[in-house]
TrEMBL record:
UniProt xrefs under HAMAP family: Deacylase_Dtd
Pfam family, one: Tyr_Deacylase
GO cellular component, one term: cytoplasm
Gene name per UniProt: dtd
Source organism of the structure: Diaphorobacter nitroreducens
Stated name of the protein: D-aminoacyl-tRNA deacylase
Length: 153
């Protein structure tokens, strides 16, 4: 699975002008299932995402995870948005190929699994809508943007 994490001060997702997901400080996670991915890759991606120390501590060093965002035992938000275009292969020609992305049914199943697992372990989870035309608004904090890839196997 692929994740693109953005540390945000706030973020929201709109579908047809309606806000379907919103967070304050936390992580915007764009996620993509690839061919051959399973729940094991989803679990590894979520674990890495929750423990990644990319938030500043009291001396300004990136030393906190989204789970201990303010150092007081409270968590930052997670906004999880499906984005199959993360699997784009742009090596040939000018039109990206998306053949490495999981088929829609598999992608949706793994996205739903990922969201359910996130909600089971993290108290503040919002989402977009799978396969919808979404507008994502964010205030990137830093900016901090990190790619994560969990390969099958």
């Amino acid at each position: 699975m692929i994740g693109l994490l953005q540390r945000v001060r706030e973020a929201r997702v709109e579908v047809a002008g309606e806000i379907v997901g919103r967070i304050g400080p936390g992580l915007l996670a764009l996620v993509c299932a690839e061919q051959g991915d399973s729940e094991a890759q989803a679990d590894k991606l979520l674990a890495k995402m929750l423990k990644l120390r990319i938030f500043s501590d009291e001396v300004g060093k990136m030393n906190r995870s989204v789970q201990d965002l303010d150092g007081q035992g409270t968590c930052g938000g997670l906004l999880i948005v499906s984005q199959f275009t993360l699997a784009a292969d742009t090596r040939g020609g000018n039109r990206p190929s998306f053949t490495q992305a999981a088929p829609p049914a598999q992608g949706e199943r793994l996205y739903d699994y990922f969201v359910a697992q996130a909600r089971a372990v993290h108290p503040m989870v919002a989402t977009g809508r799978f396969a919808a035309d979404m507008q994502v608004h964010l205030v990137n904090d830093g900016p901090v943007t990190l790619p994560l890839r969990i390969a099958p196997g």
